[in-house]
Amino acid sequence: MLEIKCPYCGKRSQNEFSYGGDGTIKRPALGEEISTKDWDDFVYFRDNPRGKHTELWQHVSGCRQWFKASRDTATHEIFSTCKMNEDFNE
Amino acid sequence: MRILMSNQYRTSNSKGLVNKEKIINFTFNGDSYQGYEGDTLASALIANGIHLVGRSFKYHRPRGFLGAGVEEPNAMVQLHEGDRSEPNIMATEVELVEGLKAKSQNCWPSVKFDIGEINNILNRFFPAGFYYKTFMWPKSFWFKVYEPFIRKAAGMGVAPLSPDPDRYEHNYEHCDVLVVGSGPSGLSSALAAAKNGARVILAEDKAHFGGSLLNDDVTIGNMSGREWASDVISQLKNMPNVVVKSRSQVFGYYDHNMTVMFERVSDHLENSSKYTPRQRLHYIRAGEVIVSTGSIERPISFGNNDRPGIFLASAAREYMKVYETLVGKKPIIFTNNDSAYATALEFIKNDIKPIIVDTRDNSDGQLVKEVQEQGINIRFNSGIANTKGHLKIKSATIGTLDNQKENFISLAEVDCDCICMSGGWTPTVHLSSQAGNKLKFNEDIDAFVPDKKRQKETAVGSANGAFTLNQSLAEGFQVGFELSNKFTSNDIKTDTPISNEPDQKPHEKLWCMPLPNGQKPKRFIDFQNDVAVSDVELALREGFRSIEHVKRYTTLGMAGDQGKTSNLNGLQYVSNIEKKIVPEVGHTTFRPPYTPVTIGTIVGREVGNHYLPTRKSPVHTWHEENNAVFVAAGLWVRPRYYPRGTETMNDAVNREAANVRKNVGICDVTTLGKIDIKGPDAPEFLNRVYTNAWLKLPVGKARYGVMLREDGMVFDDGTTSRLSENHFHMTTTTAQAANVLSHLEYYLQVVWPDLDVNVLSTTEQWAGVAVAGPKSRELLSKLFPDVDLSNEGLPFMGLVDTKLGDIPARIYRISFSGELAFEVNVESNYGLHLWKKIMDVGSELGVQPYGTEALSTLRIEMGHVAGPELDGRNIPYDVGLNGMVSQKKDFIGKRSLSKEAFVSEDRQTIVGLVPVDKKSKIPEGSHLVADDKAPTPIPKLGHVSSSCWSVEYNNPFSIAIIKDGKKQIGKQLIAVSPLKDISIPVEVVSSHYVDPKGERVRS
After folding, report:
1. Mind telling me how many Å the CA of A7 is from chain B's nearest CA?
2. What CATH number is associated with residue A71?
3. What is the pLDDT of residues B4-42, one digit of tens each?
4. Which of B108, B315, B513, B864 could be stapled to B383 by a disulfide with Cβ–Cβ 3.0 to 4.6 Å?
5. Are B332 and B308 a contacting pair, CB within 8 Å?
């Protein structure tokens, strides 16, 4: 069970959080003209890197805030977490 | 029942930790025995001369005890009876309690005469990989012939069939330093860390603290090892920053320094309070973990080295020194190192002269000299070739080895009643390995030790390959101090005491004896999994090279045992044959749990009603009192129907639904998800979340909304109303309430943080009652005489805030049933009051409660979509929600709706189905085909999503989603349910079966 530092609440066990996937995905702007391929890339396609990965988590059983985490997918080391409007302090 | 008074195998001069004043009665295989307080089941059986405990896994060979603790691979028993019966328990780990019942397992009809032993006689037909090779074909034999046979032949104990009556608990703990194991290095680490002010947990698997200090004659400072251990423990117990736990096994090491500990809380107590749990699981998140798990003695492989009476030398010593029990009176000590001589000396102390067989050419170690001074002749350069004795060892064939130690030169048979063997020591690296530590091979001790750590884990003492007491203590005090300094600024260092122990000479690198000429006895490596030297040879001969493959093919080092005694001997043998060094062969992965853990402990309190939380509406007690049959809806418990008298479910549902169509019914809709939405950008947010337009919804009005996922599939639906300019009340389906909240939070926090909106779940703050039917207005007029409920006063999709007496209430004019209907909300605590009031004033109008079944019937008849249609596989066009999709604005998932497949002409759409015979109910999930007699595969046109008995037309009616549905209306299709083996001709009709123009809701 991972120990994740919620940027709002501090260190908590993984079972208080839910995983939110790749944190680098940007949703196309509303009303933006976009090709089917680009839209499909946004909806369906994700990289699956071994190593450092920027991802989203939500503290569902806590403050319910979404935040960013930088995690090694191979070792589970979490290098840093930060609020959505912040950058990692690495 | 016979009373077998005995205890004739007790030591005369060893002073152990048993209390001979307190006699404990127990039974084994139905016979009664006596042991002492402080005995384990193993030590008590051995003291009574019982060595035959069970039968081995594969060959059903008679087996006894090998070890004295967690390393025991053989002596598994079935404990207790009835619902407390427990299989596969190591007899060495069971503390004796009054009335304990144990029996042998994996044998029939008895442990002394076991039919399965034919496997041993036929063992050449049961080589490694036997099952893989034999049960390959024909395929059809697998289920009927092979599997039942394997199931009968395999397995050890028997699991009880009734629920476990005991209580188990989970506990979460944090500490700076967790110390696993209370031997010399563990005690010194814990003491050093604790004195420096760190918060320490010390965990010991056994009932007694001290580890090897209980078995070895050493001094620390001016005390014996045993005295020093109890002195340190009493110091630790008196420190407020220390938790000391015995009978507690740390069995798993997971990510981010999460370790899991299994505590046997009351198994050893004769009487315990019913509030005391039997066992406890501790999740310990430790800042640093000190692995002081010690080491386990290695066996030696020789012919028939698995007979009852053949022990590890260290175990024999522990039985004498801790349990005052003799494993035999005519012992042979067989060793490749000095440590077994301590066992010889303990025998001598009890006036028993052992025969000593040492593979080495000689040794001048201190212990060896002490034995020689007792006038005992040591047979150096010798080994055991074979043994005799069917149910108990009777004799051993001892031989002199040639110069290469590859053959025996001469052989002679010697009588004995036990063999105590020692192949040196293996550090217990399981936890370090689980933590991700890359182990390295230490050639001095011929074993793997922890090396490159991935987590905050440090091995000390013999777990780290430090086999002398001096080293162990020094490492413990040093590491305990250094690691605790990370958590405190005290900088208090504790000095390492001076210790004294006999010096020892190196072991010989020899763990497998040659075969005696002309004989091929089995030489076991892994006792638990019945893997012999010949099995490893076979695997290598058949081309398995990777040690991981050899492990799986032979089952070496698998299962509950996890290779505690067998791992290195297996690796060593592979490396000898492969002419490689052990580190090139590598090692297999150690997996948790280190020792078996009961399922009850893993589950804890989460059983029965505690498995998941139960959510009940405030009206629940009324439902119970009024004979409701309940159904689970997610975590909620909802009334399904309210049978009267002898009514069947169908009767009750039809009555409840018909009463709504004719009079008025009420339904508890408290479970609907409710989300409070506030902020200046709330209308804009809803406009992006829902597929329809929201900017111009007037205050005091509700609107039906549909939300999609980005892939265009319908995610949820519900009505949302505008309470004021910037304040909305959203409802969701019962099932999706939590997911919708997370969805909204995601878009507000991650995608559009510029929107000034807050969302909050208010599901539990509101109780809701749907009042539906042509007489619903009349009913509510009685309850709210001051409110204008007419079409003008409260039109369809309107809402009004009012009061029920003094209680604030909100009335919505919304309908799921398709009838004239209202929904009344009050604060949750008044839910029951509201419900009773409605039933009260409605009695003269014929009001009846209706459950989820009638609710479904009513909405299916009307063609309203719900969960079965909104199953995450349908876009709005598929389920008739075309009118809900705005063409003017963008919203979540809109771009997907213009994808080619989603706009194709023959896309699936929602339709209604009526059986041609107007009688046959169509099972939900049925497939729709044009011709059920066509050659397979028959093209599938769609599936039936919801079915009901139409109370309006008194015949079955279903909703289906089928390809090009609009064009199918009026045609006949076949609904087939292969599961129920039925085919029903159906006519395709509009999904709006009742009141297709929707006039009733506006009446």
Report:
1. 14
2. 3.30.2270.10
3. 457 899 999 989 999 999 999 999 999 999 999 999 999
4. B513
5. no
